[in-house]
Amino acid sequence: MWPFGKSIAQRAQEAIDSMNVFQGLGLRVSEQNGVLSVSGAVPNKNYLRAIEAAVGGIKGIQSVDTSGVIVAQQEVSDADIAQAEEEVRRATESSALAKQVLAALEANGELKDDPIDVLQKGSGVVLRGAVDSQHEFNLAVQLAKSAGATDVDTQGLQVHPGAKAKFATQQSGSGYTNVPDEWYTVQPGDTLSQIALKFYGDGSRESYMKIAKANNIQDPDLIRVGQKLQIPR
Question: How far is the C-alpha of 111 from the C-alpha of 113, rounded, in Å?
Answer without folding.
Answer: 6
